[in-house]
Amino acid sequence: MLLNDPNRFIAHFDLDAFFVSVEIKKNNALSGIPLLIGGNSDRAVVAACSYEARKFGIHSAMPMKLAKRLCPEAKIISGDMESYSEASNEVTELIAKSVPVYEKASIDEFYIDLTGMDRYFGCAKYVTELRQTIIKEAKLPISFGLSSNKLVSKVATNEAKPNGQLQIPFGNERLFLAPLRVEKLPMVGEQTATLLHQMGVNTIQLLSEIPVHMLHNLMGKRGIELWRRANGIDETPIIPYSEQKSISTENTFESDTIDIRFLETELVRMTEKIAFELRSQQKLTGCVTVKLRYSSFDTVTKQCTLPYTASDHVLLQTVRELFRKLYDKRLLVRLIGVRFSHLVPGNYQISLFDDTEKMISLYQAIDSVKHRFGSSLLMRASGMHGLAQQKPRQEQYLLRLPSNTQASHPLRKT
């Protein structure tokens, strides 16, 4: 069994209460009060909340109605994904110019590989100075954990919050994790935690002492990984960050068409499919483009920006509006395409500032089915019409990469 490398130094940086911190940066009067970010209606959910609000038992994804009941004096503001993205990019640039290798795990979370730098600077000193630089220049609170691997560093960051730092020396990984509750171990979700509690396993130390073959019999390969993590073992590499620019799909039809219903059906099907790809990659889009190529080979496009999202119903409305403005009904259409650009890391929930808990559950259920059985199994009824009438000549998904990498790469062909 491979163990942790004593010469490896991995830092995990996490911006504290990121959305809230950005709002306070814009308006300092919001500092120190219970603050909720999300839709104001009772049917909306909490997208983020301040530490002051968390003291009342409020957490993200909680129904707003319940949050307001727990803390009636809380101030509610709608989210601004554009400003959050700008703040994230500012911190990313500060990290990128300061370290050799980093991974952007989400809009507010980073892993940094400092292996080898201890010979010149001292890793703890270096990341401490980097944290102070971010606080000073970005004017946002940020915490970090430093250890020999990603797992322990992430847990250390969570223990250091808010606005703190914590180093776990090599050899102390298991000792550090031991007294913590099992819920604090990444990959232990609600169901796994319930199962472990039923077994009488409440701390990571107890989990680490269970024979690995027993966990394997109980959970399969997941049980082996859980045992390794409970013992502070993790060789997961840093994945160097590369900004994906866009995701798109184009259909060239076997025969040119003026069937508007068919064209709208194709738009629904393509939008739904690449929106699923977007959520699968934990990305949000801030710009939508619709492309048409007529039988004369004349090509036209129209695009618009929108609040960052990965939800089908928002994207479909935008795509339909662009198509209606773009389409010349007198001309035969040869090709139709949809592209999402201005991508930022993030998951579906953080864009749901005005959606309900029911809508979140619906998308989670849809994506679960698609991940398990394939994306073509479940689709909107409005995306079904015409599939048998006209077979697309080709359908290709493209990833637009930065200029220093391959210009385009086929993600999937069907």
Outline of this structure?
The chain has helices spanning 18-26, 51-54, 64-70, 81-96, 123-138, 150-160, 173-177, 190-198, 204-209, 212-219, 221-230, 260-280, 312-326, 357-373, and strands at 10-15, 35-38, 46-49, 75-77, 101-106, 109-113, 142-147, 165-167, 246-257, 283-294, 299-309, 333-341, 344-345, 392-400, 408-413. The protein is α+β, with helices and mostly antiparallel strands. The longest helix is centred in the middle third of the chain and has 21 residues, at 260-280.
Structure description:
This protein has 414 residues and is of the alpha+beta class. It has 3 domains: 1-170, Reverse transcriptase/Diguanylate cyclase domain (Alpha-Beta Plaits, 2-Layer Sandwich); 172-241, 5' to 3' exonuclease, C-terminal subdomain (DNA polymerase, domain 1); 246-413, 2-Layer Sandwich (Dna Ligase, domain 1), CATH 3.30.1490.100. 37% of the residues lie in helices and 24% in strands. It has 14 helices and 15 strands. The protein has helices spanning 18-26, 51-54, 64-70, 81-96, 123-138, 150-160, 173-177, 190-198, 204-209, 212-219, 221-230, 260-280, 312-326, 357-373, and strands at residues 10-15, 35-38, 46-49, 75-77, 101-106, 109-113, 142-147, 165-167, 246-257, 283-294, 299-309, 333-341, 344-345, 392-400, 408-413. The strands form 3 sheets. Strands 9, 10, 11, 12, 13, 14 and 15 form a 7-stranded antiparallel β-sheet that branches. A hairpin with a 4-residue loop joins strand 10 (283-294) and strand 11. It is globular, with a radius of gyration of 24 Å. Mean pLDDT is 84; it is low at 381-414.
